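Notebook, p. 212. Picked up where the previous page left off. The plan for this session was modest: take the two constructs that came back from the sequencing core last week, fold each one, and keep the raw output in the notebook itself so nobody has to go hunting through shared drives later. Recording the first one now, exactly as returned: residue sequence, then the structure token string.
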Amino acid sequence: MLFLKTLILFMVTALAEIMGCYLPYLWLKQAKSAWLLIPAAFSLAGFVWLLTLHPQATGRVYAAYGGVYISVALIWLWVVNSIIPTWTDWVGVGLCLLGMTIIMLGA
């Protein structure tokens, strides 16, 4: 149960980070409104706060979070940018999640 809660927290954390980076991208690269920087800042602040909610050591959390971030980033690519990940993307995600699982269960 703790593993599932941690995984969900990682996914929410990844969404906050991706959103915090995607909104400035829209402003810089697609000439969208600079007002997007305000929710981007809140999203990045939320990302930092969410990282503090993990009970494990900080370095371990960051290492394991990386695997989830990669997974969520590929899903974002698919859902938001309409680019379907390749089979090699999915294999890479599987390897990252396996590594994340090893790190988290070894704690």
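Okay, moving on. Second construct, recorded in the same format:
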Amino acid sequence: MKHLLAAGLLAAGLIGCAATAPQLETEHSYKVEWIGERPLIDRSHLTITLGDDGRAYGNAGCNHWFAGYQLDGDTLSFSAAGSTRKMCAEALMEQEARFLDSLSKVQRWDLNSIGQLQLWPANGKPIRLWPEDN
């Protein structure tokens, strides 16, 4: 329900500012819902925050990650991500590796019809995210 309300408010804001293209918010956390073709493992928590200083960071499900990023309009790219080195269950580690690999392939972003942030690679399905409740 909160996501529908947020999407409605976002859509209303975009309609009210039709001449202005949507902007990707920095210093705001986004919660990953899908990585390409696959949803997240139940109760796993992956996040992305784009800092004003050109550094991105978040939780990769098991470890904390960090990388540089470049944002120019709807173009977005990440440098190779680093992370802490904690070990978790094999399925979480596989999902984390897929997530970090997917980040390195991101080339652009957009918002879909329901207000989700999508991070698109050159080929394939996007990473889909919701704004995190703060």
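Notes on construct two before I forget. The chain has two helices and ten strands.
Flagging for discussion at group meeting.
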